[in-house]
Specification:
The complex is a heterodimer of chains A (293) and B (360).
Chain A: H1 3-36, H2 53-60, H3 62-93, H4 100-107, H5 109-112, H6 115-126, H7 132-139, H8 153-181, H9 185-193, H10 198-226, H11 230-235, H12 247-257, H13 261-292
Helix pairs in contact in A: 1-13, 3-8, 3-10, 6-8, 8-10, 9-10, 10-13, 12-13
Chain B: E1 4-13, E2 16-26, E3 31-35, H1 42-50, E4 57-62, E5 65-66, E6 77-80, H2 92-102, H3 107-121, H4 136-148, E7 154-158, H5 166-183, E8 187-191, H6 194-200, E9 203-208, E10 211-216, H7 218-223, H8 228-233, E11 240-246, E12 252-255, E13 260-263, H9 266-271, E14 277-282, E15 296-307, E16 312-318, E17 321-327, E18 338-343, E19 349-352
Parallel strand pairs in B: 3-8, 3-9, 6-7, 7-8
Antiparallel strand pairs in B: 1-2, 1-4, 4-5, 9-10, 11-12, 11-14, 12-13, 13-15, 14-19, 15-16, 15-18, 16-17
Helix pairs in contact in B: 2-3, 2-4, 3-4
The chains are: A mainly alpha (293), B alpha+beta (360).
The complex binds adenosine-5'-diphosphate and magnesium ion (MG).
The site of adenosine-5'-diphosphate (ADP) has 10 residues of chain B, from helix 1.
């Protein structure tokens, strides 16, 4: 069959999907771009063209830069801890022990919970009056009085990070476990015979098989973390004193709470740009590993 | 003192007994091949010697020292795996030197040892490459180099040639033999390939279902198999086995059906009664087209004639029992022919019909 026809047919087959994508993605996207150059309100008409005003205000104003900082901190902390917890869990689950299948199945539970349910659960745990965390810490003598974990600017972000890590480390653990099980038995045995200790074995034998899948997990999780909205909205609504206001929260408040559609749109586009950069690096990594193997 | 000594090694996995009592000992410089079908427990035994698997019972001694509780790295062994098992991120040089690196051998000394091993294996130009940039044969050389550099008491090989293509397998086999001679190394080598076993071994241990069926030099194993299993395992095509019984006059043996007689060796003549069931083993290449009087004689019907170049295989039956003769390439044999043949009585091997054990 001539390859030109194959190409044509491929496009034809993809056409319905492309039409839908243009309708639900491209058109709103274009509309957002247009809005971002206006001072449109959420209700009412049009809004006047203001050029790059919205962008200029954003990049020089405190709220956006603070939210960018908060988001970055949240993403770095949660992804780093997820990877650490995930890899450790995977290393444990890679050992032979009784009931290992059960533990593996149980471990996936937090990840299977809807984010909102998880967030509610952790709000209960952090509750200043009857939360489990306070009683636990008080009983073990680590704190001397009940604290409001989500109510204090110094601890709120960390508390949310912990909740997010608890929910998402199982995914990293599963990816890492699959990678660990791809490590050839013979190579492990060779390293033992060669006299490598546990740490050297991890570095020389395990790590090469782990690093590829883990990179992909890191990029995917970073994209997710940068877009974080629901867990924070349920737990703190961006407070206290904006200490947990990430970019998505800020965009939401700007566009819907303060009804400034124009400047909300410009923020949304900047967030999209940042996330797109991560996505591009993800694709680049995939390409490189595909070329490598 | 034996370099390696195994006594009463057993290994159980749950209810399954993978090794059922293995005893053997190895002197310095021996090349012992553990030969057996897949799943008979060869790798398990090798891993027990290496210390990677704990035996259920029994003792491994290396250079007289009991290895109970001794870590693999302290056993003075080196191992080469079927899959090469190279470290993917390390260069060839570091792969080879890794065992020394872990033993804190100074860098200069290590580099010299690596260079020496690379020289022996002719892989010096590859030293800075990574395993992914090597062919299968080169990877296997690196794996062998990793063992060489350690200069261990015992080398352990687990089917090291089975991932190589036929030509490379042949070359590497020859090279291993040369290395063994040059280094006077003590080797335990696992394979399911009887040709590899015959060509490499100073002694072969034929394994079956977790037991050693016979241990001996390749010649002994080939010419004097201890039982019908070994007889059927060695040789390609393997030894013919024909069922039959002792004739009424006690002087000879006759096949179950079909014509012909084979003279009974004097030892059996005296000890066995007429009518006793006996199985005889005949190597295909010992069969000659002969009309020589006095030689042992049987008759086969030929179904298929296969010319391999160096020889002719005549495939058919003696009576109703399958039989293959390996003949000179210029023998005139046609399919459908009835072929009287003969062989030296000394080349016959006699087995108890029930137990399958060799009688002479
Ligand atoms: N970890 C294990 N658990 C259970 N059975 C095993 C284990 N390792 C090996 N076996 C069994 O022991 C037998 C011998 O295995 P192996 O030594 O690998 O055979 P070979 O190397 O001769 O092919 C096989 O039947 C295999 O299924
Ligand atoms: Mg094996």
């Amino acid at each position: 069959m001539p390859s030109a026809w194959i190409t044509t047919r491929a496009w034809l087959l993809m056409l319905p999907l492309l039409v839908v994508m243009v309708a639900v993605v491209s058109w709103p996207m274009a509309e957002t771009v247009r809005l971002s150059f206006t001072d449109a309100k959420l209700v009412g008409t049009g809004g006047a063209y203001v050029g790059f005003d919205n962008y200029a205000k954003l990049l020089t104003g405190r709220p956006f830069l603070l939210a960018l900082k908060t988001t970055t901190l949240f993403a770095v902390l949660s992804v780093a801890l997820e990877v650490l917890a995930g890899v450790l869990a995977a290393l444990l689950l890679d050992q032979e022990f009784r009931g290992r299948t059960l533990v593996r199945a149980l471990m996936i539970l937090p990840w299977a919970l809807p984010t909102v349910v998880n967030a509610m659960l952790w709000r209960l745990i952090y509750n200043p009056e009857y939360g489990a965390l306070n009683s636990l810490l008080l009983q073990t003598g680590l704190i001397s009085g009940y604290r409001s974990w989500l109510g204090e600017p110094t601890s709120a972000l960390w508390a949310i990070v912990a909740a997010d890590v608890w929910k998402n480390f199982p995914l990293v653990a599963l990816i890492a476990l699959a990678a660990l099980q791809a490590v050839p038995r013979d190579v492990k045995a060779a390293a033992i015979v060669d006299g490598a200790g546990a740490f050297a074995r991890f570095r020389i034998v395990t790590w090469p098989y782990l690093v590829g899948p883990l990179t992909i997990a890191v990029v995917l999780r970073t994209i997710e973390a940068f877009k974080v909205f629901d867990i924070i909205w349920v737990m703190t609504r961006g407070g206290p004193a904006n200490a947990t206001r990430t970019l998505s929260i800020l965009v939401y408040q700007e566009a819907f709470s303060f009804q400034r559609a124009g400047s909300g749109a410009s923020m949304a586009l900047l967030v999209t740009l940042i996330v797109t950069l991560f996505a591009v690096s993800y694709i680049a990594i995939l390409r490189r590993s595909a070329a490598g193997s | 003192m034996n370099t390696l000594e195994l006594s009463g090694i057993t290994k159980r996995y749950g209810a399954m007994e993978t090794l059922k009592g293995i005893d053997l000992s190895l002197e310095a410089g021996e090349f012992l091949v553990l030969l057996g079908a897949s799943g008979c427990g060869k790798s398990t035994l090798l891993n027990i010697i290496a210390g990677l698997i704990e035996p259920t019972d029994g003792d491994v001694r290396i250079a007289g020292r009991s290895m109970r509780g001794v870590h693999p790295k302290n056993r003075d062994i080196a191992m080469v795996f079927q899959s090469y098992a190279l470290y993917p991120n390390l260069t060839v040089a570091r792969n080879i030197g890794f065992g020394l690196e872990m033993r804190k051998v100074p860098a200069a000394e290590r580099a010299a040892a690596v260079r020496r091993a690379a020289e022996i294996l002719q892989i010096e130009p590859l030293l800075e490459r990574r395993p992914s940039e090597l062919s299968g044969g080169q990877r296997q050389r690196v794996a062998i180099g990793r063992a060489l550099v350690r200069d261990p008491k015992v080398f352990l090989f687990d089917e090291p040639l089975s991932n190589l293509d036929a030509k490379l397998r042949l070359e590497t086999r020859t090279e291993l033999k040369r290395l063994h001679h040059a280094l006077k190394a003590t080797v335990v080598y696992v394979t399911h390939d009887q040709v590899e076993a015959m060509t490499l071994a100073t002694r072969i241990a034929v394994m079956r279902d977790g037991r050693i069926e016979q241990i001996g030099t390749p010649r002994e194993i080939y010419d004097r198999p201890a039982n019908l299993y070994v007889a059927g395992f060695m040789g390609s095509p393997p030894m013919n086995v024909l069922k039959g019984s002792i004739t009424d006059d006690s002087l000879s043996w006759a096949p179950l059906d079909g014509s012909g007689r084979l003279p009974l060796p004097p030892a059996l003549r005296d000890s066995l009664r007429p009518g006793t069931a006996l199985t005889v083993g005949i190597r295909p290449e010992r069969v000659g087209l002969s009309s020589t009087a006095g030689a042992a004689q049987l008759t086969m019907t030929v179904d298929v004639v296969e010319l391999t170049g160096a020889e002719i295989l005549a495939v058919g039956q003696v009576g109703s029992q399958p039989f293959i003769a390996n003949l000179d390439p210029d023998a005139a044999v046609e399919p459908g022919a009835t072929l009287p043949f003969a062989m030296d009585p000394a080349s016959l091997r006699w087995f108890d019909a029930d137990s399958g054990k060799a009688l002479t």
